[in-house]
Design goal:
Elements lengths: L3 E2 L7 E2 L5 E2 L21 E2 L9 E6 L9 E3 L2 E5 L4 E6 L5 E6 L9 E3 L2 E5 L4 E6 L5 E6 L7 E3 L10 E3 L10 E3 L2 E5 L4 E6 L5 E6 L9 E3 L2 E5 L4 E6 L5 E6 L17 E3 L2 E5 L4 E6 L5 E6 L10 E3 L2 E5 L5 E6 L5 E6 L9 E3 L2 E5 L4 E6 L5 E6 L1 H6 L21 H12 L9 E3 L2 E5 L4 E5 L1
Parallel strand pairs: 4-32
Antiparallel strand pairs: 1-9, 2-3, 5-38, 6-7, 7-8, 8-9, 10-11, 11-12, 12-13, 14-15, 16-17, 17-18, 18-19, 20-21, 21-22, 22-23, 24-25, 25-26, 26-27, 28-29, 29-30, 30-31, 32-33, 33-34, 34-35, 36-37, 37-38
């Protein structure tokens, strides 16, 4: 499969063949990836933007669920138009694109001048950071969404159907020369980052769309089979596993979708069983958990000092809780579901929601200090608000069938929903929306 170099990168060294080389990034620099680093704490080394100025917009031809990553002068993001894009961070100019045969709803990772990502076509790819040319690919057993009979109470109750809310693919983490990533074929893969050779794979009991976090030689990853696994990073052997809640009636409150974050010897993660968990990183023993009253916790948490930050769906609240006890420090309501993972720069946490809004919250005071709305949200949202000014989901869902839910979600996505996680660099926030737009906001 070939990619096309559209525009050389002016901020890098240009070779005789027209490709670019990242002159400011050592070959073995730390990887950049989903949630900023392998431990997935969600903290970025950047000034906190005020969200008052759109520096540029870049348009893809599909929905963006992928979170952008920034490495030096370039931003990398996937789209459901089956392409991975490299965009100049300073002005939004397209540098190159790489085409696959499926939606790229995973967040890329960049290491050693190589970009790694998953596609719905069932392949894990490695392409050159400079020109987008393929280095290697590894074929998995194929992608699929989590499926169950009558899921979420959708009719008919006996029909096995894919979950329309299973929108993310697992995002690779790179650690110690190895790429770790989950797959819809139920496996977790460990792949040699240089050659693409399989080092090991581990079979879970269901689809793995959570993203792996890696710390101290251990890979932490959840599965739709309800378990969070701690795997030896070198061998894939199980150190421990922790079981979350079950729901065999309508399969609404089951499965781990988001990534864990590892900090201070504790693993933090949310679950669709309506709980947020803190486990001992070495033993898997429960330290504390919070009941979110029927609300999914899809997004991955951020950890700042002694505070853990996360978003919720039906509860429509952003939480800051004590890392040691789980007690609430503050919560912020918002007007729609959120699958977005908070990203922290300075003392501000940024996250998006399904109504196309982006928030910045001061993690010390608990006050909203910045707001932004996508272009589509500004146009479309007023027609879908309830009397309280919140997103009225009933205006989209007309019938309790799979087709009805898919049509309804398509309507929601036209609001320019922000499902992914912001990335921050140099005082600029980068975020994609479901109307296909990648934004750079200052």
């Amino acid at each position: 499969m070939k990619s096309k170099v559209l525009i050389p990168l002016c901020a890098a060294a240009i070779t005789a063949c027209g490709a670019f080389v990242f002159t400011g990034t050592p070959a073995l620099a730390d990887a950049v990836m989903f949630r900023a680093d392998a431990a997935h704490r969600g903290v970025y080394d950047s000034p906190a933007p005020k969200l008052t100025t759109v520096k540029w917009r870049f348009q893809t031809k599909g929905r963006i669920f992928s979170s952008p990553v920034v490495d030096g002068p370039a931003v990398f993001v996937g789209s459901s138009d089956a392409r991975l894009y490299a965009v100049r961070a300073s002005d939004g100019t397209e540098l190159w694109r790489f085409a696959t045969k499926g939606s790229i709803n995973s967040t890329p990772a960049v290491w050693n001048q190589t970009v790694y990502f998953s596609s719905l076509d069932g392949n894990i790819y490695a392409v050159n950071e400079s020109d987008g040319k393929e280095r290697w690919r590894l074929r998995t057993g194929g992608e699929r969404r989590f499926s169950a009979p009558g899921i979420h109470g959708i009719q008919p109750s006996t029909e096995v159907m894919p979950d329309p809310y299973d929108v993310f693919l697992s995002s690779p983490a790179v650690w110690n020369g190895t790429v770790y990533v989950g797959s819809g074929d139920h496996n977790v893969y460990a792949i040699d980052a240089q050659t693409g050779a399989l080092r090991w794979k581990f079979a879970t009991g269901n689809v793995v769309h959570a993203s792996p976090a890696v710390a101290d030689g251990t890979v932490y990853i959840g599965s739709w089979d309800r378990y969070l696994y701690a795997l030896d990073a070198s061998t894939g052997s199980v150190k421990w596993k922790f079981q979350t809640g079950d729901d065999r009636e309508i399969y609404n409150q089951v499965g781990i979708v988001g990534s864990a974050a590892v900090a201070g010897g504790t693993v933090y993660f949310g679950c669709r069983d309506s709980h947020f968990y803190a486990l001992d990183a070495k033993t898997g023993a429960l330290r504390w958990k919070r009941d979110e009253n029927g609300s999914w916790v899809i997004g991955s948490p951020a950890v700042v000092g002694k505070t853990v930050l996360y978003t919720t769906s039906d509860e429509r609240k952003f939480f800051a809780v004590d890392a040691q006890t789980g007690s609430v420090k503050f919560s912020i309501p918002y007007g729609a579901y959120s699958f977005s993972s908070p990203s922290v720069a300075g003392n501000v946490a940024y996250y998006g929601s399904f109504d196309g809004k982006l928030y910045g919250v001061n993690v010390e005071s608990g006050k909203v200090v910045a707001r932004f709305s996508t272009d589509a949200s500004k146009r479309e949202l007023p027609a879908h608000l309830d009397r309280s000014g919140n997103l009225d989901m009933s205006t989209f869902y007309r019938e309790p069938t799979l087709d009805g839910v898919i049509v309804g979600l398509s309507g929601v996505y036209k609001l320019g929903s922000i499902a992914g996680s912001p990335s921050l660099a140099g005082g600029t926030l980068f975020i994609g929306s479901t109307d296909g737009t990648l934004y750079a906001i200052g």
